[in-house]
Amino acid sequence: MQALKEAIRREGVGIGSDIVKVDSFLNHRIDVALSTQMGQAFHEAFADERVDCILTVEASGIAAAITTAQAFGNIPVVFAKKGDHRNVGSDVYTAEVFSFTHQTMNVIRVSRRYLQKSMRVLIIDDFLANGEAIRGLMDILRQAGCELVGAGVCVEKGFQPGGQQLREEGVKVVSLAIVDAIQDGNIILRDD
Amino acid sequence: MQALKEAIRREGVGIGSDIVKVDSFLNHRIDVALSTQMGQAFHEAFADERVDCILTVEASGIAAAITTAQAFGNIPVVFAKKGDHRNVGSDVYTAEVFSFTHQTMNVIRVSRRYLQKSMRVLIIDDFLANGEAIRGLMDILRQAGCELVGAGVCVEKGFQPGGQQLREEGVKVVSLAIVDAIQDGNIILRDD
Fold first, then answer.
1. How far apart are CA B166 and CA B189, in angstroms?
2. Could you report the per-residue pLDDT of A116-129, keeping only the tens digit for each?
3. CATH of the domain at B162
4. For residue B153, what are the β-bridge partners?
5. How many A/B residue pairs have CB atoms within 8 Å?
6. How much is the ipTM here?
7. Residues on chain A bordering chain B, Cβ-to-Cβ distance under 8 angstroms
8. Domain of B184?
9. Can you give the pTM of this predicted structure?
10. How far is B87 from chain A (nearest CA, A)?
11. In chain B, how many domains are there?
């Protein structure tokens, strides 16, 4: 997606060999026009599918999940919660997700009330690297008996294996930008 | 705001004397049409003001922050992060926020890059009870030299003192629904 790639070229910072810092427009400060366009792009990519619900995980996935849901005509968004939540209650699906960014194991939780059997669900997230978050969400969808439509991610780290592995397993993964490498602080994007 | 009050009457659950559970449409599952309408309502309430940026705190504030920013013509959203974040870096403003929901003290962080001096900032959050989160965000705005336009909250717990105290201090607080009490599991809403 052109506008996202331009934002990454203009504002993204590559750190070391694997960190793509895009917090000026994606996951700390949010460029809302760009986020809205990304939602439209995800809708376009999955427009042939029936989608009943968007599933994401707090917190950075929420913005793109909302704009995607708007593009689909205001379908509901459910976001998985991390850690203990007094408010979530005990009637939940859980999955374990290892965060490479924070080097911690997180439990994510979704209330059973919001995922019904046979619901067709599109996963949206801001990043795809090793695929841990998406696999955690897929695990929850399996427990709930939902059908996975696919996964839309804003930025895929193409040099980490998550995206390729998911595609090989038959998951429709749509990434709006793919980073092929970080070299001397430069973010090398894959051309379409 | 009528649509929000109707959603609270229809789906909200009062627990004990102080918990207002609205996670079927506000802070776990999100009713995206309602969220979009809430953004428009916040825009209406602050339409006379110049607003450069929306500030919220992860995770439940993000949805309404995004839709409010859209209603203001796609101004940027900045969301404060909780806890340690390898990605945020050290060049941050911080504030301490006590969460009554989780009974924990959280440090919230905003990168200094995204709040410039004299920027006019509107705070948006999903809940206002004792006002801790909004005071933490106000503290960060003070450190950054920003001007506080006001605070828009989806649901105010009118039986807790945060909203009244902020108003007495001259902060323009706009709540789209105010809960006056919880009685036998029923949520008593203040009439306009």
1. 20
2. 999 999 999 999 99
3. 3.40.50.2020
4. B125, B175
5. 114
6. 0.96
7. 19, 21, 23-24, 27-33, 35-36, 58-59, 62-63, 66-67, 69-70, 74-79, 81, 84-88, 101-103, 110-111, 113-114
8. 2-189
9. 0.96
10. 7
11. 1
